[in-house]
Design goal:
alpha/beta; TIM Barrel; 15 helices; 10 strands; about 45% helix; globular
């Protein structure tokens, strides 16, 4: 029997919605081979913790690690301590360090793939010189490497605030990359994800910034496994990946255009390091295995309904997409409550969450429709809908 729920709409109305029958997604025996794919995972807040804005993060460690086991069970790698985990938006460095340690230990025990972000967010907002940024990166590199994860060199708000020219970025990255014991993933995060990163690489002009970025990558190609590009610009990504040195991967961070970028254009293709893969793990896994089999029809069929969902979750203001990721994990029974560190569950309004609910259901990504409807109904009651 179908499950029905009354949901708010973007135009302020209430309409009945009938959920589809659940989709059965088969877990793979091993990861897909044709692409490397990481899901950037969020953290689950401790419901008894003081997770108000500005307070140190209180994390539900068991639920957080269980979510990572869920991602690994579908053959995906985990990208740990990235912006999806609320770096700079509620997750403090002390908690981040513990998160990296715990997740990397879990990955080692399972023989699973993990990368983790190294940044400079332990610094105070006001830093005086570029050497402070280098030292902060070095401290976080040491933490990630000691834990046994591969390093993702994240973009730095502190560097963006200090830098006045492309040479300032080169000064920092030349020194940071030589400290890495193994090849790293270099992250270019666009201002739609973090406005504080506007003008990264020394210019707000994309062509100029790309030239500076490519010069850095070519000069350190032996120390760079790949670049993660999160600019939501498919044409730019296609052009960029043809200009990378041989052997340097492009991990797409484009949560709007990922199906076409991962599939490739006959010349090149992107690997993946995506926040949306945390929300669509079963579908992402099935699509990637279809790609292994050169079954492009199934690949397209599986991922097509996930794109409207992703575009809703990552809609403007994009930096609050994390709220949608945690919301979908809660609806799916993958965490006990819908709360976030820093109180970020307020980052999306109720009509937006209701449409996210509809789109997740349409994509077959609500494994237990009755549970999802019950939890959504409880949220509606909290908001005063249907009183």
């Amino acid at each position: 029997m179908s499950t029905t729920i009354t949901l708010p709409t973007d135009d302020g109305e209430l309409r009945a919605y009938v959920l589809r029958d659940p989709v059965t997604w088969t877990k793979p025996v091993e990861p897909a081979k044709s692409r490397i794919a990481y899901a950037a995972a969020h953290v689950v807040a401790d419901p008894l913790g003081d997770n108000r804005p500005g307070a140190p993060a209180a994390v539900d460690w068991e639920a957080t690690l269980a979510f990572r086991r869920h991602l690994w069970s579908y053959g995906l790698g985990v990208a740990e301590a990235m912006d999806t985990a609320q770096r700079g938006m509620g997750l403090d460095w002390d908690t981040t360090r513990e998160l990296i340690r715990r997740s990397a230990a879990e990955a080692a025990w399972l023989g699973a793939r993990i990368v983790a972000g190294a940044g400079t967010d332990q610094l105070a907002e006001k830093v005086s010189n570029l050497d402070d940024v280098v030292r902060a990166y070095g401290e976080q590199l040491d933490v990630v490497q000691a834990a046994g994860a591969q390093v993702v060199v994240m973009a730095s708000r502190q560097l963006a605030r200090l830098a006045t020219r492309p040479g300032d970025y080169r000064y920092v990255y030349d020194r940071v990359l030589t400290q890495a014991a193994d090849p790293v993933v270099l992250h270019w995060l666009g201002p739609m994800f973090d406005p504080a990163l506007t003008g990264y690489w020394g210019s707000a002009d994309l062509d100029f910034a790309t030239e500076a970025f490519l010069e850095l990558v070519h000069d350190h190609a032996d120390r760079i496994d790949g670049v993660k590009v999160s600019l939501l610009d498919a044409a730019h990504e296609r052009a960029l990946r043809t200009l990378l040195p041989a052997g340097v991967r492009l991990y797409t961070g484009d949560d709007f255009n990922y199906p076409e970028l991962i599939k490739g254009d006959g010349v090149a293709a992107s690997d993946a390091l995506l926040g949306i893969f945390a929300a669509i793990a079963p579908a992402a896994s099935r699509a990637l295995h279809a790609l292994d089999e050169d079954d492009l029809a199934t690949y397209d069929e599986v991922l097509a309904p996930t794109v409207p969902l992703s575009r809703r979750v990552f809609g403007a203001p994009t930096r609050y997409y994390k709220t949608g990721i945690a919301f979908l994990a809660w609806l799916s029974g993958l965490q006990p409550g819908f709360s976030m560190v820093g109180g970020l569950q307020s980052g999306r309004g109720l009509p937006d969450l209701a449409e996210t609910f509809r789109l997740a259901d349409a994509a077959g990504l609500l494994p237990d429709p009755e549970l999802a409807a019950a939890r959504m109904s409880a949220l509606l009651a909290v908001y005063g809908v249907g009183r």
